[in-house]
Structure formats: structure tokens, C-alpha cells
Design brief:
This protein is mainly alpha-helical. The protein has five helices and no strands. Helix 2 packs antiparallel against helix 4 and helix 4 runs antiparallel to helix 5. It starts with a helix and ends with a helix.
Length: 100
């Protein structure tokens, strides 16, 4: 996706749709993956995940929605916008809920 967004590779709507579908599927799994509180010292998740679980899951749903929207990308500009949206949703969650 990144290469297509930069124009280094030709836009391939089928590949974009496939990648966006995978991203949406993985985003849909986030809530279930974090349902159980984990205290693994190797984990990068902060305790805030479980202290603010409704906000955490809302951010996961926002990521899923961004991925779903990207399935219909047909221009490089649309892909660039979609990539910015992905980055913003990932960043918002990681800043709040992931160890630096």
C-alpha cells in the first residue's frame, strides 16, 4: 500500500481491496485479543488498555472503519488519504495504550 500511495508502484485496486480487507479483519480481532487482562512483562500493552477498555475498543473500531473505507479506493489521492487515516488511528491507540 505504501509504495502505491507514494506512486512508486501502480495503483492496483484489487490489491488495495485485499489489503484493506485483511486490515479490517485484523482490526475486528483486537477487542477479543485484549479482553483478558494480561500482565506479561514482555507485553507492550499498558494497563490503560483495561482501565479504559471502552475507549480502547472504540479506537479499534475506528481502525476497522478506516480499513473498510479503503476497500473502495480507486485513485492514488484516495489511497494517500486512506493511509493517513490508518496512521492516525494506529498512532492514537499506540500513544495511549502502548509502551514507548
Amino acid at each position: 500500500l505504501g509504495e502505491m500511495a507514494k506512486g512508486a508502484a501502480a495503483l492496483d485496486a484489487a490489491r488495495v481491496r485485499a489489503a484493506a480487507t485483511t486490515l479490517a479483519q485484523e482490526a475486528a480481532r483486537i477487542e477479543a485479543l485484549f479482553e483478558a487482562r494480561e500482565d506479561d512483562p514482555k507485553s507492550e500493552a499498558l494497563p490503560a488498555v483495561w482501565d479504559s477498555f471502552p475507549d480502547f475498543t472504540a479506537k479499534a473500531q475506528t481502525l476497522k472503519a478506516a480499513a473498510e473505507a479503503a476497500k473502495d479506493v480507486s485513485t492514488q489521492e484516495q489511497l494517500q488519504t486512506a493511509m493517513r487515516d490508518f496512521g492516525a488511528t494506529c498512532s492514537a491507540c499506540h500513544k495511549a495504550y502502548r509502551k514507548p
